[in-house]
Amino acid sequence: MDSDINTARDLIHTRIWREEAEADNPFAARAAFCRGYDVFGEMVGNARWTEMLWLLLRDSLPSRAQLDALEALAVALANPGPRDASVHAAMCGAVGGSTAAASLIAALSVGAGRYGGAREVHDAMTMWQQCGHTVDAWRGWSEPQAASPIEVWPERKHVPGFDPHGASLPATVGQLLAALARIGAGPHTAWLHANLDAVHAAIGLPLTTAGVAACVLHDLGLSPDEGEMLYLLLRLPGAAAHALEQKTGGFKRFPFYPLELQEAA
User: Fold this and answer.
1) Which of 128, 142, 147, 196 can bridge 159 by disulfide, Cβ–Cβ 3.0-4.6 Å?
2) Is-contact 187 141, C-beta < 8 A?
3) Whole-angstrom Cα distance, residue 127 to residue 146?
4) Calpha distance 208→218 (Å, rounded)
């Protein structure tokens, strides 16, 4: 029995997180530390939500400019709105009686792909890493590539971060980019804001919210894998809220197109 307890104590430790066990229960934490910071003794009540997010991904706390940029982006991404496919999926799950977990999993699954989803953010961040500001290189990078035998995603069909079906820049995307440039999100965000018209003309497509998010997350020094995961996470609050609303409203008040069912012949 003693050897089992010692083994359990050894396992509850990673480079990110360290726990100290209660004297009478090795599976209950007396103290927990994130990157060395005492979470319940010092951070709770003093740290911001985005500081904790940052600390889970990095060894030290962010600068004020990094924190402001991440928080501003988190506010913008919190609710993609009911017309977004991921939120719509969560609403469909909830109105049909699915569990909370199933509704959120629907939102994650539908919002994970290469059209406005988290994989598009991953693609755009990779493009920023490899091509920098060279817009001509963005088009070449976005050409369909020979698929790997283990590739699970459909091939690329447009420059990531730009809407293949869009005509003009949505006002909300322009406002988001301007706000993030103003608060000093980073050099790539400032460049994109200053050259937005030229980039639009060169690509032939308008920038999207996913494109702004990818640029800012790249400026914050996150990897494409980290950006993809964070984009999935930050868009969940809106999916949850709309799912809860539909659960109580019922299918007769579902705010989408009425079904035009035809009698069977």
Assistant:
1) 142
2) no
3) 17
4) 15
